[in-house]
Every structure is written in C-alpha cells, then in structure tokens.
Backbone:
C-alpha cells in the first residue's frame, strides 16, 4: 500500500466542532456550485424525452444537445485554471455563477434547435469553471483532518442537484414546460454569486500573491480557536522561491502526481456512469416498454440512492481513507456492469423484470458515488504542488470533460451499433483496470496536509510501487 509520511498532528477532532463553523459555512456556500453541476447535468436527461417530441430530433442531434455543454466545459475548465491563478479561486466561482445565470435566462427563449445549443454551451462554460474552482477552493480553506468530508459536501450537494432535477423533470411531464426546467438553475446561480461575495479568498492563493497579512487573517478567521502557526510556516515554505524546488517541479515525482490525477479523471468518465446517467430514461425506453413518466421516476430513485451514497462517503472518507473507498466503489461498479451486460442481452432480458435492472443501476450509481464520484474529485484537488496546482487541476479536469464529451457524444450510436451488452462489458473492463491502477499507484492522503503531499512528490520518492503496510 502506498502511504505518505505523516507530520505531527495539527488538529484534534475531539475539540468542539464550533471551531470549524466558519469552514463549514464557507464550504456549504461554495458547494452550491456542485448543486449547479449536478442539476444541469441531470435535467437534460429528462428534458430530452420532451425535446425529442418538440423538435423531432435525430439520434445525432440528441447527442449534440447533451454533449454541447460538455464540450464547452472543456474550455471552461481551462479558463478556470488561468482565472484561479490570476484573480483567485473565489472570483472564479463568481464568474462561473454568472455564466449559469445567463444560460438559465436564455433557456426561456430556446424555441429552436440552434438557440438550445447556444444555451447549453453557455451553461457548459459555467460547469467547467465550477468543476475546477469549487473543489479547489474547498480544498484550500479546510484543515487536513476534515478535508475529505468537506469535499464530499460538494458531492452530496451535487447529487442533491441530480435528485431535484429528476423531480422537476417529473413535473415537466405533467404541468410545467421544459423551458422552466432548464431555467430553474437561475436561483441557485444567483445564490452562489451573492454568497461568494461574503466568503474569504483561500490563504494559499493570498500567500502566493505575497498578500501575507491577508492570508494570516483569513486563516485565523477560518480556524478560530486553533493554532495556525504551523500552517503559516508551511505556506511560507511552499510560497518561497527556491531554485532547487523549482527544478523539482519538472521532475519525475511531479510527473507521477500528474499521471495519478489524470488517470483518476479519465476513470471518472470512462467507467460509464455519466454517459449512462445522461441518457438513462431514454435507454429505459429503448430497452423496455417504460413510458416517459416511469423512466423519469426510475431516474429519480437512482438519484436518491446516489444522494444517500454521497452522504455515506462524506462520513467515511476521513475515517476509512481514499484508497479503500475507491477500491470498494470500483468493485461494486464492475460487478454491476458485468451483470447488466448479461441481463441486457436480448434473450435474457425478456425474462427479467424491469425493476431488477433499475435496482442494479442503483447499485452501480452507489458504487460510483461512493468511490470515484466522491474521492476522485478529492484526489484531483489535493494531489498537486501549489505552484502548478491551478494549471494541473484545470488540465486534468479538462481531460475529464473531454472523455465525458466523447462517451456522451457517441453513447447512443455505440448502443445501436454494438448493443447494450458489449457497451456495459467495455465499461466493466475499464473498471477492472481502474482497480489495478488504484491498488498499485494511488497514495493514501487521508489526514495529510497539502504541503506534506507536495513535499512527498517533490522529494521524488519511490512512487508507483506497492509498499507493504
């Protein structure tokens, strides 16, 4: 098992949780960005059923509507990397909130196919920017011992967005128009913008810009009764220009950190959860006699399961560790995908109750959220050295969105050409490879400061091999 060296304990979990109140509040406000990502990801899954009737869409046009947002998210994530470094993590979140608000308003006038694509593209920019800046922001304002659970708050709220989107989609099938479903994101976008106006910038960014007094004040505000001297010393050491450490940024150790982050990002999309989730109601209708309402109800139930799984991950990630959750989550996903491959075969499927398929999808969703869907974001946010953190996170998230774009853009085509069984088994094979990668190459970072993680990579230790406990 890969382990990082532990420094002396800075924080004591037995202390009153009141000392973390400012951190929790800041985390919750920033996590509204996660809600927007989840909502706007899931809302199109149900709306697509009604857009198909409204615009008489071909399979390719359906794929373009869904993937247009993801394609722009690639650009948004790269923009966020630059903005996070130049103007700060906080302002980057605020800019992304503006993109969401604009896309929500324009969706009210999306009465033709090109306008709908434009609306989704603007929203995609916001999705890409928030996917970088929100975990980035949370990771830098919280202490090491609760960093995992705080990042998982974002995932919990993200899955709440999934769930609410499906509930609204259910209403669309009765009384509301799909334009309302797309425009409802305006309220949380406005809330995020206003809320972030009152939130502090991260101490690490302020220190990197030589605004040391501000950084210390923010750190004292966030930590309240805790001693911050150790963290200040660590930030001072990390922010100082050192020719020797600067050269190490291009060394083998940092390259391995980037490799770990990149592979985790690819696994988050290449294992199939998001691609399947975007089209879940549509796939149910293709493979069974489910109507639109029943398909959306099934999607809502899966959203509820994902929400519960993210809550469990939030409670366990700082206790059990990143590696265990990743391994368990990927194992559950792999088993479900193999089973779905067998059950979705034409001859077998005719003898299987549709509810059994939905329950397996629920387990698949729980496995993803419990592992890659929670811990994946956390590892990407915490694993890189400070001086390259902005560009590394934005680059890795851009790769994540690119893989998502490819899988979403061509999933329906693949489904038609290869069949559902081969599609599920392909995702299962990728999950198996993911289990092996996590086992041999992903280090355990639970309870370890960002500065210590940075030191670990810069020292270029013998990474990438299995170390006995």
Residues:
């Amino acid at each position: 098992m890969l382990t990082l060296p532990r420094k002396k304990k800075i924080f004591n979990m037995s202390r009153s949780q009141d000392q973390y109140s400012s951190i929790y509040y800041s985390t919750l406000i920033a996590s509204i960005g996660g809600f927007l990502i989840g909502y706007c990801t899931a809302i199109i899954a149900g709306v697509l059923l009604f857009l198909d009737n409204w615009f008489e869409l071909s399979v390719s046009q359906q794929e373009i509507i869904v993937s247009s947002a993801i394609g722009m998210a690639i650009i948004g994530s790269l923009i966020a990397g630059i903005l996070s470094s130049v103007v700060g993590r906080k302002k980057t979140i605020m800019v992304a909130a503006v993109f969401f608000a604009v896309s929500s308003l324009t969706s009210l006038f999306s009465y033709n196919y090109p306008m709908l694509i434009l609306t989704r593209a603007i929203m995609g920019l916001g999705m890409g920017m928030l996917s970088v800046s929100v975990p980035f922001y949370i990771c830098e304002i919280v202490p090491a011992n609760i960093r995992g659970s705080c990042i998982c708050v974002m995932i919990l709220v993200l899955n709440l967005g999934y769930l609410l989107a499906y509930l609204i989609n259910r209403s669309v099938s009765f009384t509301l128009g799909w334009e309302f479903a797309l425009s409802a994101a305006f309220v949380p976008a406005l809330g995020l913008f206003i809320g972030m106006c009152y939130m502090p910038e991260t101490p690490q960014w302020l220190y990197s810009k030589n605004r040391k007094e501000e950084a210390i004040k923010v750190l004292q505000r966030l930590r309240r009764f805790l001693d911050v001297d150790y963290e200040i010393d660590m930030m001072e050491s990390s922010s100082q220009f050192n020719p020797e450490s600067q050269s190490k940024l291009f060394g083998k150790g940092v390259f391995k950190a980037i490799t770990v982050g990149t592979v985790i990002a690819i696994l988050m999309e290449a294992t199939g959860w998001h691609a399947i989730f975007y089209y879940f109601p549509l796939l149910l209708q293709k493979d069974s006699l489910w109507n639109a309402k029943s398909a959306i109800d099934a999607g809502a139930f899966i959203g509820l399961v994902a929400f519960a799984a993210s809550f469990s991950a939030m409670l366990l990630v700082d206790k059990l560790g990143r590696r265990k959750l990743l391994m368990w989550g990927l194992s559950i996903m792999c088993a479900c995908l193999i089973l779905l491959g067998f059950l979705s075969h034409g001859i077998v499927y005719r003898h299987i109750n549709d509810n059994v398929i939905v329950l397996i999808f629920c387990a698949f969703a729980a496995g993803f959220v419990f592992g890659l869907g929670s811990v994946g974001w956390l590892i990407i946010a915490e694993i890189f050295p400070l001086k390259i953190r902005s560009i590394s996170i934005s680059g890795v998230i851009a790769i994540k969105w690119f893989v998502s774009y490819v899988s979403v853009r061509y999933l329906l085509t693949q489904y038609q050409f290869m069949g559902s069984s081969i599609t599920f088994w392909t995702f299962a094979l990728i999950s198996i490879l993911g289990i092996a990668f996590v086992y041999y190459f992903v280090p355990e970072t639970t309870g370890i400061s960002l500065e210590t993680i940075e030191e670990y990579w810069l020292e270029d230790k013998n990474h990438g091999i299995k170390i006995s406990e």
Residues 5-16, 243-247, 463-469 have pLDDT under 50 and may be disordered.
